[in-house]
Design a protein that fits this description.
This protein starts with 13 loop residues before the first helix and ends with a strand. It is of the alpha/beta class and 221 residues long. Helix 3 runs parallel beside helix 4. The protein contains 6 helices and 10 strands.
Length: 221
């Protein structure tokens, strides 16, 4: 199994950090959905700078943030204090989550769960199944094999994984890429509520796009 590696937030410029402080579009839908379902315990898995940790805490969830980067957890703690919300934060590896079985009603992991290889992905999926309560849900994103990154001549770990090699915060981080069949195989022990592919555009000096699968899964009753 490839070694996990955290984002290097020290090389992220301030104007780019603003992007990572804005909640993603689907987060508002998830808040509404999970409030209506009466869910309470929420885990922001791979919380980064805490944009969703703080957002869900403000919405009334009992909120937990988790990340491999000590820097990001420190920043999340600072932002949470500024926002006046209480959150529980931990540093660690997704491959072995420091939570008891059946701990969470809902989990959100955006653009982070695929920072491993195929073997690691299977282990993380098993961890998600373990920590979710009965009828618990998880919304996650996975890099698609249609993405620009999967086409690059980067070091290959296995048939689904490459090590990103470029200047920036993700240099040296493994990236797992999926197709639809692989998505359904990975989550065969869950009920797949929704799965769709999204093309994201990032406009900077040059315009690039990436494809991600968005997947909403649920513990089978």
């Amino acid at each position: 199994m490839v070694e996990s590696k955290a984002w290097n937030w020290n090389v992220v410029e301030d104007d780019h950090k603003k992007y990572w402080l804005e909640p993603a579009i689907e987060s508002y839908y998830l808040i509404d959905r999970w409030q209506n379902q009466g869910k309470q315990n929420f885990l922001d898995l791979g919380c980064g700078l805490g944009r969703h940790t703080i957002q869900f805490a403000k919405a009334g969830f009992k909120t937990f943030g988790f990340d491999l980067s000590e820097d990001s957890i420190k920043k999340t703690e600072e932002y949470a204090k500024e926002a006046g919300v209480e959150v529980e934060l931990k540093v660690g590896d997704m491959l072995e989550l420091p939570y008891k079985d059946n701990s969470f009603d809902c989990v959100y992991c955006r653009n982070v769960i695929s920072h491993t290889d195929t073997k690691g992905m299977k282990q993380i999926v098993a961890e998600l199944k373990r920590i979710l309560k009965n009828d618990g849900e998880c919304y996650l994103t996975l890099g698609s094999k249609q993405s620009w990154g999967y086409q690059q001549d980067w070091p290959v770990v296995d048939e689904n994984t490459k090590i990103r090699v470029e200047d920036g915060p993700e240099n040296g981080i493994p990236h797992f890429y999926a197709d639809y069949d692989l998505v359904t195989e990975l989550f065969k022990d869950f009920e797949i509520v929704k799965v769709f592919q999204v093309e994201d555009f990032v406009v900077r000096e040059t315009t690039t796009s990436s494809y991600h699968y968005h997947v909403l899964i649920k513990i089978k009753k």
